[in-house]
Amino acid sequence: MQYATLPAHIIDAIWIIFILVWVISMFSAKRTMRQSGVNWLTYRIITIIIIVIIIHYVGVKVLIFGYVPNLSLQWLGAVLVTIGAAVAISARFYLGRNWGMPMTVKENAELVTTGPYAYVRHPIYAGVLVSIIGSAAAFGLLWVIILVVYIGYFVPSIFVEEKIMANLFPETYPAYRARTKRLIPWVW
Fold first, then answer.
1. Which of 2, 21, 146, 20 minimizes the C-alpha distance to 74?
2. Helix (H, G, I), strand (E, B) or coil at 107
3. Cβ atoms 103, 160 nearer than 8 A
4. Is 181 helix (H, G, I), strand (E, B) or coil?
């Protein structure tokens, strides 16, 4: 079986593009006024993703976990990674200079409620999780572990960030929260 398939290359390319967009866009963000979370974890997770991509190319993942990629699952994974990355990157651009590391407060923060934020309050998290699910479908156990780590980081971050937003925007955030879901449109 060939492990360096077209959908595998697409998935890897999408993750590389995602990481580049994130790193480049960090330089245009507003100044951070307050930090409420453990942001070093985000850097560790990005590092893990890069390592997984490298491992994917040398094939060690298959040796370690015994997972043989299925081409149909890889195509499904490529679609999910593409959709998830598009949602996350779109949300990042809608935030503009208001974007910051999770659980931070930016100088002159603004409440963004358009684009993907019109449907869910945390579309970046939603997009990243969909992309990780796609990678797990395509490549197996290692990405399932990364999914669990991300869920363990994102869910508490969601609750902290919503408290921050309620404090920053006491007049507008309650109405926004009432008409949107946290992560999955129409569900949660």
1. 2
2. coil
3. yes
4. strand
Dihedral sign computed on CA atoms, order 61, 62, 63, 66: positive
Scanning the chain, the segments in alpha helix (DSSP H) are 6-25, 40-58, 60-65, 71-95, 123-139, 141-168, 173-179
The tally of domains found in the chain comes to 1
Range of the domain at 122: 6-179
Query: Which CATH number does the domain housing residue 20 bear?
Result: 1.20.120.1630
Give the model confidence (pLDDT) of 41-57 as tens digits: 565 666 667 666 666 65
Q: Is the pLDDT of residue 95 over 60?
A: yes
Number of residues that this document lists for the chain: 188
Buried b (16+ CB within 10 A) or exposed e, 121-130: bbbbbbbbbb
- C-beta separation of 161 from 103 below 8 A: yes
Separation between Cα atoms, residue 4 and residue 157, nearest integer Å: 35
In a domain, 1, yes or no: no
